[in-house]
Amino acid sequence: MSKFQNERGVTLLEVLAVTVIATIVSIVLMSILTNSKTTSDKQMKSTIQLSDTTYILKVVTKDTRKSTEIHKKALDEYTEYTLINNQNNKKYTYVYHQKDQTITRNDEMIAANVLDFNIEDKRSHVIIDITTPDSKPFSSTIYFRGGS
């Protein structure tokens, strides 16, 4: 009995077991953290795209409601939409650059990373279409009321 009472320290097997357990726990924790970060980044990117697209639709809708005429000029490199209000001589010019995937309003950039942008005048209503890089289409239809 006295032989066992004098022993101190840990065996190599105990050290190895603790090391293996600590490594497994570390790997599991790193995996969870990495997956959480990846998911968070995807959600953040999606939220930013949604926010940007909502802003673009809001601005274009506001200008469209103020306008009495819409002119479209489509070229290879860009498409230009001119919204004119004949009552107060205001003019809003939107240019969608296909190569840069940007939208400018009166020469000021209001959006980037836009795959497609279109304003279509249907006489009784206007359709605004925007497609984001994750191929999500957003659309807004503005109806005009006739009246006296």
Entry summary:
With 148 residues, the chain is of the alpha+beta class.
Walk me through this protein's architecture:
By secondary structure, the chain is α+β, with helices and mostly antiparallel strands. The chain is built from two helices and eight strands; from the N terminus they run H-H-E-E-E-E-E-E-E-E. The chain has helices spanning 2-5, 12-66; strands spanning 69-74, 78-85, 90-97, 102-105, 108-112, 116-121, 125-131, 137-143. Strands 1-2-3-4-5 form a five-stranded antiparallel sheet, with helices on one face. A three-stranded antiparallel sheet has the order 6-7-8, with helices on one face. Strand 3 and strand 4 form a beta hairpin. The protein is rod-shaped and about 100 Å long.
Question: Which strand order do you get reading across the main beta sheet?
Answer: 1-2-3-4-5
The major β-sheet equals: 5 strands, antiparallel
Q: What proportion of the residues is helical, as a percent range? A: 25-40%
Number of strands: 8
- Report how far apart the termini are: 110 Å
Task: Provide the residue-averaged pLDDT.
Answer: 88
Order of helices and strands: HHEEEEEEEE
Task: Give the number of helices.
Answer: 2
CA radius of gyration: 30 Å
Q: How much strand? A: 25-35%
Low-confidence regions: none
Class per helix and strand makeup = alpha+beta
